[in-house]
Amino acid sequence: MAETGRNGTSRILEAKGMTKRFSGLVAVDNLDFYIPEGAIASIIGPNGAGKTTFFNCITGFYQIDDGEILFDGARINGRSPDQITRSGISRTFQNIRLFNNMSAIENVMVGQEPHLKSTWIGAILGLPFTREEDVMSEDRASELLRFVGLAGKGDMLSKNLSYGDQRRLEIARALANKPKLVLLDEPTAGMNPRETIETTDFIRRLRDELGITVVLIEHDMRVVMEISEHITVLDYGRKIAEGLPSEIQTNPDVIEAYLGRGAAASATASET
Amino acid sequence: MDILRSERSRIVVSLGLLSGAFILFAGAVGMIEAFHEREVVDKFISLGQLLMLLAPFAVGFVAASRMAHTDASALTLLVCGAGVGILTAIPTVILLLFNSEEFRFLLDLTLKLLPLAVASYFAWQRYRAGADPRLVAGAWLAIAVLIGIVTYSFALVFEIKGELRTVLVNINRDWVDVVTFDHRKELMTGILTLCLATVASGCVGAIFHLIPDAPRRALLYGLGVTFLVGAFGETVRLILQEHLDRDTLKEIFRRDTLRQNAALALFVVSTVTGFLWAMFGQNLRHGISTMEYSQRRVLNGIGMLLFVAILLSLPWLIGRTLSDVAVTIGIFVLMGLGLNIAIGLAGLLDLGYVTNYAVGAYILAVLTSIGPLGLLKGTFNFWTVIPVALLAAMTAGFIFAMPVLRMRGDYLAIATLGFGEIIGKLAISDWLKPLIGGAQGVQAIPKPVFLGAELKNPEQLYYIVLVACLVTLFVSIRLNNSRTGRQWMAIREDEDVATAMGIDTARAKLLAFTLSAATGGVAGAIFAAKVGTVFPNSFTVFISINVLSLIIVGGIASNPGIVVGAIVLIGMPELLREFSDFRFMMYGALLILMMIKRPQGFIPSKIVTHEVRQGVKLKPAAAE
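The joint structure predicted for all components is written out below.
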């Protein structure tokens, strides 16, 4: 499954002048950013900063009004969500959105969609190719369930899984696409400290074992600072900082956006 | 007053009035009267009377079981059962009194006092709340006058016409006959009989709760079997008539009704069997479940063979009339299976399914008819046109799906409903009259010919429907457990996420509509061949609603559920003609009941297991 080694310099995702407006409101404002290939990158920012809108723009849920988005060197804005998924970007959702009345393994099998070729005619006639592909897809799905730690729960309806398992299943479903880039929207939201640590380790495994570039939206600063190699900070749809965790932590603009002007002043004061 | 406010009396009053209102309603819409025509047991009880007694029985049982936690004594439960029974009778008794000559004045009095009473009640309430007395007086006057206008005019109508049925058409002599158990002449005896009957059945219901589980089930089973055989006496007789000689049949039935001795024998036999099953069924099931896998497979195989044998010999078993019903049920099963692809799998609420049915029927009619409207006059036969009908329906499904691909949920339902109406209007239009005959329809459609034999009887047509159903079932199972099926389910669950998974939702939805339309076309074609004529009247929105209801009642996305749903919703009104007048009322009641008590349907759909097949051991659910 692992494809390329890390190559710090090349940019797997890049946006130039990306803008998204909702009637009057500018949710994403003339944004330039990039994600290095093979990195674990985070998008942070206060509530309403436009982080999820940013994800929705990349995955084609929203069409951007201006600028362009490049994935692997090719323009992807203007494409439909299913085409973007097919080009190798997967995502999870802030509020878990599984296919509730399908079993866990079926959820993962649906995630493999871009790699499946069998047709309904093949299914009705029971053609050998379709059967083989079904078995293969089933095997791969079980493998992924094992990878995320859900082996043995595959035949449960996904709505009956525990909260943590549902988060894991959503990631398994996103991985089924064999993505080059996976966008995780608050993967540790609602988790207890132990689960958060597990998830953090798991995200690292995604990159290290599968070679997938990971982009997170995350509120838990400990998680962000611990695993990110590249952080982009948004506020009111604008990028206010970008760089290594250590740089972001001391950036006065970031502190101001999070805590207000006074806090920013005292923080800079205490530092000097 | 305290006893009236206790939980027990609240239960009794609410349930008793509920069943009382039910009986009154059933009488007012004419259900009791209509059902009285059918005797369940000869010279003993009719379906209408049974309906009347079933309500207090059920409610008595429910009341007793709701009181179980208050550790009420047996006597208390019995009293409650009686209370429920008497309350059940009260609304009907009041109406009986209103309807009688001697007590007509009561109605008059009630109608005249009602506005004053209501007005006074509200005024008193306001007054106690501290409102201005002048305002209270004004309100009293206003309410009394407003309600008075209505009730006084009713009173006037009754005074002039002298009979209640001028307003409530079904409250007539026949109704009085039924509810008083044929004591119309002696009203007081009749009322007493009614009260005694409802009280008795309320008590029986309460006692039923006290019986231990095993004998209770046996009794319920015995009563159920006797009731079904009695209620469907005509049907049962038709089946038995094929296999028994006349004299034996006469012992069991007087015309279409079960004789008392036969009913008693049937009740005893079925209760005993039920009891034996309740006692030893557990062991049997346990024995089967602990059997070796190979042995169980053999058992399953035998069961399957038996099932197939019954399916194949069904027309021989049930005779002509019922075969005809079976064909109708089969046509609806076919449509149910088809519509299930759109609704059950892909979650597309299609209310215009009749479109496909009509297209199939008219294609077959026009292409095979030997009448004036036949295009080819016999060059094409049934078998060559079936694929054409299928393709035409698919094309229609495809075309109608195009404009609604971007719609979801309610909007989709409304749009498809519109398409169904359009087809009905097109069929009856002058524009298409030269082609499909307008209101006269297409006539003289020949029956299918198979190996030189004309399949003109329902017994023979049955096999065509059976084959079509089996093929559809096979296709539907294959699709359900395939990539395509999973695409549909994903769209049903969350269309946006389905897109995010890389599914081309527009294409998948088009496919669902198109494939779902296919069986509708075949069903229409078979229907046309069965009836021999095709009229626009046969293609109303009610077809779509019937098919939708049977899917919901049976269990969405569940194939066995659809068969059960079709038998209950299509078969029952065909067999019990009395039902057919109340078909849609009963559909409504059944659907509401199902949504509250069992939203997943009679037979819920099963999830396809993948991991078990791979031999992965199941983890307990509460591992986390």
